[in-house]
Amino acid sequence: MKKNVIYIILLTLLSNVSFGKTESIDVAIYSDDGTWADGIIALEKFIEWKGLTHQRILSDDINNGILSNGYKIVIFPGGYANDYKVDLLAKGEKNIKAFVNAGGGYLGICAGAFLATSTVIWEGSSYYYPLDLFQGTATGSINEIKPWAGYAMTSISLNKYNPINKFQKEKLNVLYYGGPYFEPSINQTIDTIATWDDYNNKLAIIGFKYGAGNVILSGPHPEIEESDIRDGNDFGNELIDECSEWGWLWSAFDKLLNQEITDSLIKTRIDYSINESIDYSIYLDKNSETLYSKNDLQFNFQIFNIEGDLLLDTDFYKELNISKFASGLYICRSKYATKSYAQNIILIK
User: Fold this and answer.
1) 82: burial class by Cβ within 10 Å (0-12, 13-18, 19+)?
2) Are 237 and 280 in the same domain?
3) Segments forming the whole domain that contains residue 223
4) Where residue 342 falls among pLDDT bands split at 50, 70, 90?
5) At what angle do helices 246-256 and 37-50 cross, to 10 degrees?
6) HSE-up of residue 329 (Cα within 13 Å, Cβ side)
């Protein structure tokens, strides 16, 4: 059984290796002075789970035009927005605007959301921020949820009419750590994504178009997985959160990429002959109870626990009920003809 575990893990690792020509990186993550290391690590883990590539970049990189190198999304994570503002020169701000205007996605989380807003009110004092992708006000911290520099779990309500939320429940428990609520100016058009339940239903997450690109600004931290180590750090692990925000973040990334909104899509590839291959998709529903396959293939499907014990060995066609499995990490192997593919899945209930 140990050999099986090693074989499965090796297949999982190999499935993430790309061969052939070098392609541009999908996601640029700002990681200069003032950024929050735990948030960056969690974002990297999520992006890898999403199947995208990523690279950390600095203010000098942005000032010198690195965003024109083929990135699809730029992320400004949590941290200290004033440090970002100081380090990003006027030409850097111009480069960010040009990137988004041309179709790039901008994700601002907490400090990254403050950075993108024309007026920041922090602890009662008002500041002008020249990037001003969002014409309006971002106000924090929200002492009614948790005074700065504390953090806590809180609840947000998702706008059911926003396509990003169509695979999600009505509410999400999220990490609050100094983020803002948003108030758009009269000339700023936005899409409401979520509101703060614990602060007068003020705007918690918003989205809007900027030229050809999409912008999402988030007051809470959906990248952090409390009580779970899959985000690569132990921040907030003492907090209790029975749901994951990564499913929502998955759909949000689809929006930033200007593509169809999907629900925690797991993509795999099975090579079944010398000259032909099949791309097929497996969907894990939001309740972690059913796996779905879009194509008409019937293949052998096995589920192992992390110790390598075989828990399920069955044929997979169209859909597979996995409601009997408890929350946790599992290793799956799909076999079709002479080819085999392994991957990890995480069930959260």
Assistant:
1) middle
2) no
3) 21-256
4) low
5) 70
6) 11
